[in-house]
Amino acid sequence: MHGILGVILAVVIVIAWAQHCSERPGGCCPGRNDECAPPGAFCFCDDYCREASDCCSDFPSGCNCSLDVKRLACEVQSNSHITLLTVNPSGVNDGADAKSNIQDTCNGGKARRSSYCCKAGCSPGGSICLSEKVLQYVLALANETHSIQVNSLAGACHSNTSHHYQGTAVDLQVFDESSHTAWMDKCGDMEAVENLGPGNPGHSSHTHCAF
Questions:
Q1: 127 and 27 in contact (C-beta within 8 Å)?
Q2: Residues whose CB falls within 8 Å of the CB of residue 202, separated by 6 or more in sequence, listed in order
Q3: Is residue 105 within 8 Å of residue 73, measured between CB atoms?
């Protein structure tokens, strides 16, 4: 009896441990990646797991973004007032640029994070869902007839604890004082947790709004 209970308990523990795609370091993975699994789990968090039928049980919720996020990203992508950088501000071309982040999200996927180091810290790699709030902020600026250039969302390299890596921050290129003042005012109005720009260390050329 104890042996049977032990087996049942072990199975329950394995199942419970396997339900953490959303907590896997580095997040979920595009394509096929045999190493894309939570530690100790017998399931996977890469796109190929759908074909192999070995996805972790929270794969649909842990590895896919909401329909609202997808819709907002598509609106950003089609808005003529919004320019999306096609490479990271540092010049690194890794598929985690602003345009790729929005395109991937509009296609129903996650936004890729960069995986390189800079003076500020090291970006973690993997991917993340962009937040509704950050996309709403970008659209709000564009819909108020502001022409904006999005430098980075989830990608590029920032401090190790940056909100960018959570998909909740956006950097906008500063072209003149009047524009960035309006952006920062809107950022504050939307109750951001970080609202930085010219006058703040490291932000002479861009604004940073995080939720």
A1: yes
A2: 120
A3: yes
Best CA proximity match to 108, nearest among 68, 155, 152, 70: 70
Using CB atoms within 10 A of its CB, is residue 164 exposed (0-12), middle (13-18) or buried (19+)?
Answer: buried
Q: What does the pLDDT read at residue 60?
A: 74
- Which is nearest to 41 in space by CA: 55, 60, 26? 55
**Confidence band (pLDDT; 50, 70, 90) for 5?**
very low
Residue 93: other Cβ atoms inside 10 A: 11
> Locate tokens 């108020």: which residue?
144
The reported pLDDT for the residue numbered 38 is 87
2 pLDDT exceeds 60? no
Q: Coil, strand, or helix at residue 71?
A: helix
Question: Any idea how long the chain is?
Answer: 211
93-108 per-position pLDDT tens digit: 999 999 999 999 999 8
Q: What is the mean pLDDT of residues 140-160?
A: 95
**Rounded to whole angstroms, how far apart are CA atoms 84 and 139?**
13
44/27 Cα distance (integer angstroms): 11
Q: How far apart are CA 28 and CA 5, in angstroms?
A: 33
Non-local (6+) Cβ contacts of 168 within 8 A are 131, 133, 134, 210, 211
**What distance in Å separates the CA atoms of residue 75 and residue 84, rounded to the nearest whole number?**
13
